[in-house]
Amino acid sequence: MKLRPNRLAGRARGLLFAALAALGTGCGETRYPMDTFSPKSDLAERIQSLYIQVTLWDLLVFIIVVGIFAAALGWFSTRVGEPGEASDVESDLRLEIAWTVIPALILLAITVPTVRTVLSTQPSTWSKDALTVEVIGHQWWWEFRYPSEGLTTADEAHLPQNRLIHFQLISADVIHSFWVPALGGKRDVVPGQTNQITLVPKVPGMYYGQCAEYCGDSHANMRFRVFVDTPEGFKRWIAHEKQGPATPKGGPAAEGAAIWANAPCAICHTIRGISGFSPQYQGSFRGPDLTHFGSRTTLAGSILDNTPEHVAAWIENPDRLKPGVYMPNLGVKPEEASKLAAYLESLK
Ligand code: CUA
Fold it and tell me: How big is the chain by its Cα radius of gyration, in Å?
């Protein structure tokens, strides 16, 4: 691809902005939600320290090269108009050895800690009290399963602070990439293969995630959120998720529940005890588990805030909000969509 000047200027501005952002984050919290410079897990801290090491090596090389260059300008320059003496040096073995060995040593100094960090995130064994979280990439949303708890959720994962998390990464369709900048990563999610990544979240908070491998029309709309909870908060979340879905007491939510009971939504979406995803529809037909949909902050691959208006708009025409989406437009009328939205929001 050829870059036009205005694009080049745009890229240069982008780089400058990134550099300033990097400098700015040295002083603490950041306004940039996908910032990779404010680590919140052991893995992200190790990646940060690698980044600093490599930058320092680069800085050293830069200073040496620019220093020698500046010195050479002084040593070998002549007065204007006077020709310098021609060099008769054809080769210099010592120089050639030096410029082969030194870069090799620098590469080694960068490679060894990098490979060590990569390997540390995929150990062959891990401690028994690690929490296994299955991450399933779908076009275009994320499913999170907690096998030890028998729970499934979507788009928003909860993790306990200070506990080893063992992510098992599986794809339902094409190659995706699991990436939460504040917690480290990325790691590809490949069909027919289980990849893994282990980390210990250190700081409670909400962190943004994003699919980082082009995976079709709505790749950019394949976002997610990770909530790192205190150990007690995580226990509360698990206990809450284990409860069955709420039953609406009346009003539009109850009317929505009645519509749901006869609507095709139930083929693809599980609401535990109410509707179940039929195992005959594997792959792209599977939609997010909605048992506790109302307690999530976002929907549709975490691109929309979870409000009744957004849910109704989504049900009416999903493709308008997320191009290429597999959820079909079922021709739901606006008043029915808002009742369904009221029902889904009641599923706290
Ligand atoms: Cu999934 Cu990009």
Answer: 27
